[in-house]
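Subgroup meeting minutes
Present: P.N., E.W., G.H.
Scribe: E.W.

1. P.N. recapped why we're keeping a running log of single-chain structure predictions: easier to compare across weeks, and new members can see raw inputs and outputs side by side.
2. G.H. added today's entry (322 aa).
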Amino acid sequence: MRSFALFALREPPFPARCHPAVAQVARESAEWAERLGLTGSAERRRRLAGAAAADLAARACPEAPVDRLRLLTDLISWLFAVDDACDEDGLGDAPTRLAPTVAGLLDVLDLRGDPAPPALLGNTGPRGVALHDLCRRVRAHDRPAVLLAFTGQLREYLLALLWEAANREHGRVPGVAEYVRMRRRTGGVHPSFTLTDLAYDGPPPDERSDPALTDLEALAADLVCWCNDVFSYRKEHRSIGDGHTLGDGHNLVVAIAREEQQHEQAALLAAADLFNRALAAYTEQETALLRTADPATHRFVAARRGWIRATYDWSLTAARYA
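Output recorded in log:
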């Protein structure tokens, strides 16, 4: 699938960069995940190591202070661990199975980094302990708008996982428009953007009144998620003949194939075309926005641009998509 993505996806026209402390951060984040129990088995440890969260974060945030790069890396590791529990370990097979976990994690988010009752963290397990640690560290930066945005975005992420679980239980493939809206949430992109803004001292969420910023962020989120979908498609789906495949229904290629009644190759090309057109729209909107932008807006744009390029480069080598 990497060969198809290289052929079909337009390479983002932004510089490829990487933070020089990537190896240090990878080691420290792996120790964090191990210490808090996110890697409770050899298989989970292998999966998380193969995801290369530090490499993705270091490409997206190449000039961040090391402690803030660590925070972003730990968030990405947590997101990967939750996704793997849902997708690989069966936690997300049905809403009734996933709901108790989501309820506990929502309680953790409601604390917004305040000290947690031991019973709550005991009930939520390693995922809750790690999530509380992330919120506590964001809170320590004393930027209330960032903390509120971060916890709100993670709340949307968790609720979107229930949407995925309901679809799996009923064998339902969402339509393209619905999928695109929800993919922005299931991808965990927005909390990752928020921590990147925190790393770069970008404008806080409560100061982004310009609709052009909102539109640009939505396009950037789509590009990150659709790039993931094209690169990961082959790993998550297998051919069953006659141009059809079997696998999870939460992929842009699958949504297009079902809605348009297209075979696999045509749907792959259509997904790549959506990515390429969105990338062209993004670069056009970014250019227009930067003509009159202040320094804070330049940092905001650099963060989104960095994520688009980072996702493309990381997807070329990450064992997660091999």
